[in-house]
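Why does this matter for the project? Reviewers at the last site visit asked to see concrete outputs rather than summary tables. In response, this paragraph embeds two records directly. Each consists of the residue sequence and, immediately after it, the corresponding structure tokens. Nothing has been edited or filtered.
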Amino acid sequence: MRLSLAPAILATLGAATFASVALASDYGVAYLGLRSSYIATEGAETAGSVAFDYNEEYATDGFGAAVFMGWVLDKNFRLEIEGGYRSADLDEVTIVRDDTATYAAGDVVDVGGTAQAGTAMVNFYYDIHLFDGAILPWIGAGLGGAYVDYSIDEPSGQFNSKDNSWVFAYQFMAGVTFPVAEGISMSAGYRYFQTQDFVYEDVFAEEHETDLTQHSFDLGLQFHL
């Protein structure tokens, strides 16, 4: 299954999230931050090793949160470590293949379950000093790992599953930061998050392979040290 790379334009974005506009030019400055996110998860293709293939769709009200610490390396560049959590509920699946004859190809089945991921990421950021003023644009990218806890519940129980695994993950980000008080700033941004394909087993030990692709709209709060 593919490792899709978000809209191509984002692939060139360096790293960024939650930097200090007031302090970004003070080399060596560190900051701590919190972030909350509204997450939209793309539909994905799931390939089974024995009986089932299906395409899943997610509910539109996913959420995420993260804590992070960053260091301003110079006027433009920042480094950040981040620990996060993201969650999305499964909504329905469209059957592609069912060798058990429980469903026909094309059947749409309402399902339950969630895709939850705990993430550990290292991000690299580029602050864009295009103009004077309080608002600082930035772009960014990050690499790391995601611990994906995946479950799916469907009416017949034929491919119910709950499993977890560590997989490679990456993200691209863009946004702006602005000061709100002495030593405190806020950020607003967009994030594209993608995992490597991961494998999980259903209740009959059939292996399934899929991935997790998400778009998020983020609000962050930074405390500059």
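We now turn to the second protein, recorded in exactly the same manner.
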Amino acid sequence: MSKAVNVYLILSVLFVGILLISNIAAVKLIQAGPFILDGGAFLFPFSYILCDIIAEIFGFKKAKKSIILGFILSALASATFLLVQISPTAAGWNNQESFVNILGFVPRIVAASLSAYFIGQMLNSYILIKIKAKTGEKKLWLRLIGSTFLGEIADTSIFCTIAFYGVITGTQFANYIIVGYIYKCLLEIILLPITYKLIKMLKNYILSKN
């Protein structure tokens, strides 16, 4: 197996794993002072960073494959949780309600997660490649930040609206969207030096002879 294939597989596995964990964590809304976020905020922004790295190193087609794989496995996870949810409960097991509350199939959450993820990640990778076509290998910061800013607009607004509009309304809902978007973009900027180093390190590793 070539170094390039190895790197691509590892990045894709990390990408999909972070996505699945984030989807489960996102069912809980968290409030810190006046700010409202969902539990996916801890890990989900890293899926954008990983997708940026995949697109930057391997191109849009490879990034698209990883995104589609994530979509399929997210749908499979939702279908599995639904099957478990509707299966007969064993005598003496009294946690059905808890299971449903956390892992249960909630159509609007599933719809929000899948649609926001697919559109946001595809837009993110597409914009990164389009900027790279104009800038070449220069201005990596512009590709990373610009693609995330646009991708997260779609992702955050779609997910928040489908998943939680009506559950929270008015200023709380606006707070949820704005804070979530700003937080994800700021994290991308803060981690930019690490993303730079990872891309450079992985490119050097793939091109090295040993």
